[in-house]
Amino acid sequence: MKPDFDTLIIGAGPAGLTAAYQLTKAGRTALVLEQDPTAVGGISRTANYKDYLFDIGGHRFFSKSKEVVDLWDEILPDDFIERPRLSRIFYGDKFYSYPLNGFEALRNLGLIESALCMLSYGYAKVMPIKDPKTFHQWVRNQFGERLFSIFFKTYTEKVWGMSCDEISADWAAQRIKGLSLGSAVFNALTRSFRGKPKAGGPVIKTLIESFRYPRKGPGMLWEACARKILAQGGQIRMGQKLSGLQRDPTSGVWGVSALDAAGVEQHYTANRVISSAPIVELMNAITPTPISLFNARSLKYRDFLTVALIARSSRDFPDNWVYIHDPSVKVGRVQNFRSWSPDLVPQEGMTCLGLEYFCFEGDGLWNAPDSELVALARQEIEKIGLLRADEVVDACVVRQAKAYPVYDDVYRANVETVRRDIALSFPDLHLVGRNGMHKYNNQDHAMMTAMLTVRNILAGEALYDIWDVNEDAEYHEGGTSGEQEALRSERLVPRKVA
Q: Are 7 and 215 in contact (CB under 8 A)?
């Protein structure tokens, strides 16, 4: 039986579209199935409300991978702008620059609190917790208990909806990699006395000072990518929810079924499948039932929603976003869309702020009527001091399910079991991207997992172990390319398919 397509791709987010683009560019036939009825890009899409544009979560275009940067330029050659990276922390009714400004932090915390923080840090260095298992323990070792409680605990627990003692140290090591109190203080003192640090030194992604950004948001890139996929002969079908997945043991051909917007089941066949869908959704669809289905169903996800407030206000602030560490409000982060790009806000004299609330799908926040969420956002934005409630003239709410894979204390074992099951039982089924691999990563990392997967497919052999791609996209340490770094890694030795 000749299949309909060489490769079927589940999900039109950064990983799925990157795979489709590179496969069709190489002359392979590819079909992308996307659950959303209208928007490509996944969590990297750009929402549009009355011509006001905004990110779903905020996406800075910065990568240490030359391959990824080159691909961005190839897909969207003329529409990137350079933006300053400006963020602050709101805590205790005060704003702290982030990266830290030494004098400002000292002034805001006060001499006594600052001294106690340094003593706490010194104690953590002298008496570290050996082999830290939790987020709390990892951050305490890096910054001390007191700074953990001020600058990490409240915000992290807002994001994840769980205690810092329940979150794996893996998440801290991945998302705060390369940053310690020492590097933060050095950066702060450099900024306080000399301005910006000198170029050419090691780059800590948490402390980058500028980034590139599409004029009309990240969705602009992925919409352009989708158009190029179609021009190269690929297909993208929207409003298709995965419902079944089965591999014929004789021919090796995959049969895939999906429910369209009308609830009618559509059927497709392909030589192989690339999935960027959440692992639990993928494994639920496979027949016969995978032995690791219980492990897949044990994986957890964190959801969030954005309340976009459109206001007539002469007040402006330069931050791309403000992290809300203060426990007196529920909002976790505030985005200032005009600071991402002036093209996101179509009217002069207007501002558009996105208040992000982290929640679980089905909980009180998620199910609250939009009117209640808007009222809450108006109240909290005034309490923070970024807008007056009476300046807000319009608003909308956007919900995003399964935005963040949760790193609890058993996630690693569950993912490893699923991974082994797929490797042994389901040849030519490739997992890529954030939810496809249950890795909380940035879009450049998601793209690289897809790029290396495509290279494996085109080569006909497993040259790269996609699971060993560095989580924070440091693919070219020492100036090497992502491909070279993957090949050079002790764990990424090229190997033949058995």
A: no
Q: How far apart are CA 142 and CA 179, in angstroms?
A: 8
DSSP labels for 334-351? Answer: EEEHHHH-GGGS-STTEE
Instruction: Please measure the distance between the N-terminal and C-terminal CA atoms of the chain and give it in whole angstroms.
Output: 24
Alpha-carbon distance 381 to 169, whole Å?
Answer: 32
Closest CA to 341 of 24, 126, 52, 20: 52
Q: What is the mean pLDDT of residues 349-366?
A: 95
Q: Is the pTM of this model over 0.70?
A: yes
Which region among 153-162, 346-355, 427-436 has the lowest average model confidence (pLDDT)? 153-162
DSSP 477: G
DSSP, collapsed to helix, strand or coil, labels residue 116 as: helix
Question: In this predicted model, what pLDDT tens digit does every residue of 390-437 receive, in sequence order?
Answer: 999 999 999 999 999 999 889 999 999 999 999 999 989 999 999 999
For residue 39, the one-letter residue type is A
* Tokens encoding 253: 């051909």
Q: Which CA distances in Å does 257 have to 8, 33, 95, 267, 391?
A: 11, 10, 51, 4, 49
Tell me, what DSSP letter sits at residue 403?
A: E
Give Cα 246 distance to the centre of its chain: 30
Q: Walk me through the domains of the chain, giving residue ranges and CATH numbers.
A: 5-45+63-78+217-298+409-488 (3.50.50.60), 100-194 (no CATH)
